[in-house]
Design a protein that fits this description.
Radius of gyration: 16 Å
Bound molecules: shikimate-3-phosphate
Oligomer: single chain
Number of strands: 5
Distance between the termini: 16 Å
Length: about 180
C-alpha cells in the first residue's frame, strides 16, 4: 500500500467513534504500519491519575473526566507522528476537535448498536455511560445524540471486516485523502 503522500506530512492520525468500534485495536495496527507511536487517551488518563476511568466517574463525575480529556488534547497537540485513539466522547467537545484537527486527520469508526454491545460485553473494561439495565437501548440513544458530532469526520464502517481488511481500508483513505 502506497502511503507516501500521507507520510510526507508527518502529522497525526486520530481515530474516534463510539465505544466498542475498535479504535484502539485498529490504532495499534496502524501505528505499527506507519511506524508512528500509538496512544490511547483513556489509557493515558488512567496512567496520569492512577485510577480507572470507571472509578473517576464514580468519585468525581463525568465533568472531571472531560476536563482531563481536554487537558490531554492540549498536550498531545504538541506532538507529531502519533496515532491517537480517543475515548468515544472526546470529540463531543468542539474545542478538542479544533485542536486535534490542527495536528492531523480525524477518522470515525462505526459499527451497529448490536455489534457495539457484543464487543463491549466481551471486554473487561467498564464503560460507566453504559451501565444501564437496557444497554442496547442506551447505546442506540447515545449514538443518536452523538450522530452530528461523529458525522463531521470521514466514516469508516467496521462491520464484517477482519482487522487486516479494516487496516487496509483505513490506509486507502489516508493515502487518497478521501472518506471511506
Ligand atoms: C466514553 C468512552 C470511553 C471512555 C469513557 C467515556 C464515551 O472510551 O472515554 O468511558 O463518552 O463514549 P472508549 O470509547 O474507548 O470506550
Amino acid at each position: 500500500m502506497d502511503i507516501g503522500k500521507y507520510d510526507m506530512n508527518k502529522t497525526n492520525i486520530i481515530l474516534t467513534g463510539f465505544m466498542g468500534t475498535g479504535k484502539s485495536t485498529l490504532g495499534r495496527l496502524l501505528a505499527e504500519r506507519l511506524d508512528y507511536r500509538f496512544v490511547d487517551t483513556d489509557q493515558l488518563i488512567e496512567e496520569q491519575i492512577g485510577q480507572s476511568i470507571a472509578d473517576l466517574f464514580a468519585q468525581q463525575g463525568e465533568g472531571a473526566f472531560r476536563n482531563l480529556e481536554a487537558r490531554l488534547v492540549q498536550d498531545l497537540s504538541q506532538k507529531r507522528e502519533l496515532v491517537i485513539a480517543t475515548g468515544g466522547g472526546l470529540v463531543l467537545n468542539p474545542d478538542n476537535v479544533t485542536v486535534l484537527s490542527q495536528t492531523g486527520r480525524i477518522f470515525c469508526l462505526t459499527a451497529t448498536p448490536e455489534e457495539i454491545l457484543e464487543r463491549i460485553s466481551s471486554q473487561q473494561h467498564i464503560r460507566p455511560l453504559l451501565q444501564d439495565p437496557d444497554p442496547l437501548a442506551r447505546i442506540t440513544e447515545l449514538l443518536e445524540q452523538r450522530d452530528a458530532s461523529y458525522r463531521q469526520f470521514p466514516q469508516i464502517s467496521t462491520s464484517g471486516l477482519s482487522h487486516e481488511q479494516l487496516l487496509n481500508k483505513l490506509l486507502r483513505c489516508i493515502a487518497a485523502g478521501d472518506p471511506a
